[in-house]
Each structure stands twice: as structure tokens, then as C-alpha cells.
């Protein structure tokens, strides 16, 4: 039975075989050599752990740099209410980019906060500016889903091996990647520690320093809200809040709350470089999300429609009701229902 990885070699060889066969059914020596060589190469490629060498730079598919200023402008226009996250992430990316050759390890960040606060949105903005084309983005932007990729508790060892192999293979083919672990709080405890050699750049078979790892989690979301309300009750404005107000509680939440980072060596060994708080979004930020969505659709937003959409958004916790409980996560659906009333 032919294995899928070298089946294509076989088909290609057959094509050359039939094209080169002479009238009397003989194969010329060059074609014969090609047929045997291609088939044998494919066979041993499948049997070995060999990973294709990094040839992507030749085709422009392994980018080494990007325009951080363009990303900054995109964040300013489309990413709302997260002054702390914006400052940390842009500073971290700029520093990582400028000193990439002297980095000791890849950049590792943990985005923490309520659902709908912009964690996924920011990772997508980062990827869209690091990788200019959709083709390159598909090759270099990798999302690991905590809820759907690690379903069976009995398969933890299998998941570990697969995760390590997949990440290593991607880096081996090109050292510039963005790995996003979405809904890390659903990943079984202990799985992520398998990546420690890669995250510390201690796997001598690869150089992981130019890749970026981002863990997205709801862990710490409640702690952020509690701390925010405490600062707010003392008269401290949102814009005056700083990373120092949240850093320790984020580390403790990630380490102690159930999920992929619970009791993890990634935290114990100080592998995570930045714990990034995503503050809960307020009414003004939701309005900006609504306006941005209509602008993207190139449709006019009248005041009554804006009010109707806002009425669909739930705010909490009581009694303050300052924050949109789902942030801007459902705004595109709400906008779609109002901008296309005939479909409702």
C-alpha cells in the first residue's frame, strides 16, 4: 500500500514514464533514474522524521520583518478600550523585532480577560501585519483550539507528542511563526509544559527565537473586574490604570485557576514574558465597535439604529453595570440583524 506522503512522487514518476516510453516500450536511462529516485526518496521521506529544510525565504514565504508602525495605526483605528494591552504588545513586538538576532528565546505572551474584550481580535491584527498575504498567513499563523483540539482526557500523551511535533515542524520549515493557543483554560493541565524546550530555545534541532507564542485565556477575568472596580471606586480613571495594577493578580490567576496554565512550568520558570490584561469594555467602547462595523460594511448608522443595537447588549456586574458582559464579541451579529432587517 502506498503512503500518502510519497503517493504524489509515484504519480509524477508515472507521468514521466509514459511520456518517455519509446515506440518499442523502452525507457530512456534518464527517465528511469528519475522514476526510481523519486519513488525511493518519497518512501524514505515517509519512513523518517526528516523535516523539509527551510526553502520558503526563496519564495518570500518566510518573512523576517514587518512594519510595526502599520500595525500601530491599525490598532489605533480598530482596537478599542485597551490602552494597557496596546502599550505592552506594541512595545514587546517592537523590541522582539529589533533585537531578534540577540534574543535568547521566543516572545511569549499571555492575553487574559473577559470574553469579547479583544484578545482574538488583537492576535488577528498582529498576524495580518506580520504576514502580508493570505497564502503566507495560512502557512505561518497557527491557532491551537483549547476546546476542540484536546477533547479526550485519555489521549493526553498523544496530544503532547502531536503538539510538540507540529510546533517543531512549523519552526523547522520557517523560523518566523505566530502560535496562538485559544481558550487555554480548556486545555488539560500539563499538556503545555511539553513545549518548554522550544519556548526556552533549548531544542538544538531548531531556532525558535523568531517565533511568537500567545496564550489566550479567560483566567483572571474576574480578578481584573474586581481590581478595576476597586480602583474606580477610589476615583482612578480607566486611562490612569497601569500594568502594575494587574500584573501580580494575572500571574496568580493563570497559575491557580483550572486550565492549561494551572501549576504550569511556563509560569514557574518565568517563560511567559508578558501577562497582558484586557480590561472589560464599557458602553463607549461598544459604541465604537458598532460604528466600526458599520464603517466596514460601508453603511450609514443613524442614532436610532445605534440605540437599538445597544439595547441588545447586556451590562454588568450589578449594581454598577459598567461593563458589556460579552464585550464586542456579538456586535457583528447585532449589526447584521439591524442592517439587513429583511433577513430577521
TrEMBL record:
GO cellular component annotations, sorted alphabetically? cytoplasm; endomembrane system
Q: Which residues form the Torsin-1A C-terminal domain?
A: 281-333
Q: Kindly list the biological process annotations in GO that this record carries.
A: cellular response to misfolded protein
User: Pfam families, from UniProt?
Assistant: TOR1A_C, Torsin
Task: Tell me the InterPro entries matching this sequence.
Answer: ClpA/B, P-loop_NTPase, TOR1A_C, Torsin
According to the UniProt entry, its GO molecular function terms are: ATP binding; ATP hydrolysis activity
Q: Which domain of life is it from?
A: Eukaryota
For this chain, the family text in UniProt reads:
Belongs to the ClpA/ClpB family. Torsin subfamily.
PANTHER family recorded = LD13476P-RELATED, TORSIN
Q: What is the protein name stated in its UniProt record?
A: Torsin-1A C-terminal domain-containing protein
Q: What is the lineage of its organism?
A: Eukaryota, Metazoa, Ecdysozoa, Arthropoda, Hexapoda
Amino acid at each position: 500500500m502506498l503512503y500518502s506522503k510519497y503517493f504524489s512522487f509515484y504519480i509524477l514518476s508515472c507521468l514521466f514514464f509514459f511520456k518517455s516510453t519509446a515506440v518499442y516500450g523502452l525507457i530512456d536511462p534518464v527517465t528511469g533514474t528519475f522514476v526510481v529516485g523519486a519513488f525511493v526518496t518519497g518512501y524514505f521521506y515517509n519512513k523518517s522524521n526528516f523535516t523539509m529544510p527551510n526553502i520558503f525565504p526563496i519564495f518570500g514565504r518566510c518573512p523576517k520583518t514587518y512594519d510595526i508602525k502599520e500595525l500601530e495605526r491599525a490598532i489605533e483605528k480598530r482596537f478599542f478600550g485597551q490602552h494597557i494591552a496596546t502599550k505592552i504588545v506594541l512595545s514587546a513586538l517592537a523590541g522582539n523585532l529589533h533585537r531578534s538576532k540577540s534574543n535568547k528565546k521566543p516572545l511569549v505572551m499571555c492575553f487574559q480577560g473577559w470574553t469579547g474584550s479583544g484578545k482574538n481580535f488583537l492576535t488577528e491584527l498582529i498576524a495580518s501585519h506580520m504576514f502580508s498575504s493570505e497564502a503566507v498567513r495560512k502557512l505561518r499563523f497557527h491557532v491551537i483550539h483549547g476546546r476542540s483540539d484536546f477533547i479526550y482526557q485519555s489521549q493526553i500523551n498523544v496530544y503532547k507528542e502531536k503538539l510538540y511535533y507540529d510546533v517543531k515542524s512549523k519552526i523547522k520549515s520557517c523560523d518566523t511563526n505566530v502560535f496562538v493557543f485559544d481558550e487555554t483554560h480548556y486545555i488539560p493541565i500539563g499538556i503545555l509544559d511539553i513545549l518548554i524546550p522550544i519556548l526556552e530555545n533549548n531544542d538544538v534541532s531548531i531556532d525558535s527565537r523568531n517565533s511568537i507564542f500567545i496564550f489566550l485565556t479567560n483566567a483572571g477575568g474576574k480578578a481584573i473586574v474586581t481590581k478595576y472596580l476597586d480602583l474606580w471606586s477610589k476615583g482612578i480613571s480607566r486611562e490612569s490604570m497601569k500594568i502594575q495594577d494587574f500584573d501580580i493578580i494575572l500571574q496568580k490567576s493563570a497559575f491557580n485557576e483550572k486550565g492549561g496554565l494551572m501549576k504550569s512550568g511556563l509560569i514557574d520558570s518565568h517563560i511567559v514574558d508578558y501577562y497582558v490584561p484586557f480590561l472589560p469594555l464599557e458602553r463607549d467602547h461598544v459604541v465604537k465597535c458598532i460604528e466600526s462595523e458599520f464603517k466596514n460594511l460601508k453603511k450609514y448608522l443613524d442614532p436610532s439604529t445605534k440605540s437599538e443595537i445597544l439595547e441588545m447588549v447586556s451590562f454588568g456586574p450589578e449594581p454598577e453595570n459598567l461593563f458589556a458582559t460579552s464585550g464586542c464579541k456579538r456586535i457583528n451579529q447585532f449589526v447584521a440583524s439591524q442592517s439587513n432587517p429583511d433577513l430577521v
